[in-house]
Design goal:
Layout (H helix, E strand, L loop, with lengths): L5 E4 L3 E8 L13 E2 L3 E3 L1 H11 L4 E8 L2 H12 L3 E8 L5 E8 L5 E6 L9 H6 L1 H5 L3 E5 L5 H13 L3 E6 L3 H6 L5 H9 L3 E4 L4 H4 L5 H12 L3 E5 L5 E6 L6 E6 L13 H14 L4 H15 L11 H9 L7
Parallel strand pairs: 1-5, 1-9, 2-7, 5-6, 9-10, 10-11, 11-12
Antiparallel strand pairs: 2-3, 2-4, 7-8, 12-13, 13-14
Length: about 325
């Protein structure tokens, strides 16, 4: 069995991206100004691609559809040297798809997701087959956007038992996960409880806390649910990071500003690039505020590129940070 340093576990999509000059309203028809060919993407695999670009060996646990989109995704990931030893093709099942509209004026985007069918979800048997693969890694990163949470929890539990760092991007508000029957409140609580690094989108906050100040909200969630470190990203404002000092009850926090040197082109995947940069910094012993600064740099540089997995190279990230006073990565 091949071993890797970092594993992602989540849905594999093919993104279909169109650039527009405004988001359409009801009954409107608009033309796109640019259309990208279908490309592999997904919250977890995007993050993993950033980690890989920074120099770590990476692999993905997931399933591909038995169609041309699945073949496109498989080839792209193999070309990028992402290990797919535990990514299989679901016979007769279609691929997960996403239609992404990007506003060419400011790089903001919106998604329409079309998950795969039930046979395309990673199940408990798949996790059992991958348990030694998980246990041998340094970290596992998951997302919950398009798949049931029970196998994700089992993978995180196996990782936690074997001293593997666990990371989760809660990129969708829990209320939608409950609506889609991917999770329930008890399972969500258990999953967060075995997560070392929890990154949360702002829309999820009101499902987890009544706090509105981001630092207070992150602290409340960390204390209530048991994660070791909580991050809330806030777009062009940067992020808030909250953690327990030396595993004690003392809470520390940092507000880390974003980089806004020039106008961005496409924010698709920028949050995932942040996760990849932060996870790399965490695994390499960076102070948490410095890891967040690395994450911000990765997210910013990704947003200057078109496409969710068009992540910046290590050389580009290092050169950018050196221009901000860093010595090196």
């Amino acid at each position: 069995m091949k071993t890797v340093e970092v594993i992602s576990f989540g849905a594999l999509n093919c993104d279909n991206v169109a650039f527009i000059t405004k988001f359409p309203e009801a009954e409107q028809k608009i033309n796109s100004t640019q259309l990208l060919p279908p490309a592999a993407a997904g919250v977890a695999i995007d993050c993993l691609t950033m980690v890989h670009n920074l120099g770590m060996e990476c692999g993905h646990i997931g399933k591909l559809g038995d169609d041309m989109y699945g073949e496109i995704a498989r080839k792209q990931l193999e070309d990028d040297q992402i290990d797919l030893s535990f990514t299989s093709v679901s016979a007769g099942e279609r691929s997960a798809l996403a239609w992404v509209m990007v506003n060419s004026k400011d790089g903001e985007r919106c998604h329409i997701m079309h998950p795969t069918g039930e046979a395309g979800f990673v199940n408990m048997e798949d996790v059992e087959k991958a348990k030694d693969y998980i246990a041998a890694a340094k970290a596992i990163h998951i997302e919950m956007l398009q798949m049931p949470a029970k196998p994700l929890y089992e993978a995180m539990r196996i990782a936690r038992e074997n001293g593997v760092v666990t990371s989760m991007d809660l990129d969708i508000a829990p209320r939608f996960l409950y609506e889609y029957k991917y999770a329930d409140p008890e399972l969500m609580r258990n999953l967060i409880g075995v997560t070392d690094i929890l990154k949360i989108c702002k829309d999820a906050l009101k499902d987890l806390t009544d706090k509105t100040d981001l630092a207070e909200a992150a602290t409340d969630i960390m204390q209530e649910y048991g994660s070791k470190l909580v991050i809330i990203t806030d777009g062009e404002k940067g992020c808030v990071v909250v953690w327990r000092k030396d595993d004690s009850d003392e809470v520390q926090s940092a507000i880390v500003p974003a980089f806004t040197d020039t106008a961005v082109v496409d924010t698709t995947g920028a949050g995932d690039a942040f996760s990849g940069g932060f996870l790399y910094g965490y695994l390499n012993g960076y102070p948490y505020d410095k890891a967040a600064q690395l994450g911000n740099a990765c997210g910013y540089l990704k947003a200057l590129n078109i496409g969710a997995r068009n992540m910046p190279s290590r050389e580009k990230v290092e050169a950018f940070l050196q221009s901000k006073g860093w010595e090196s990565l």
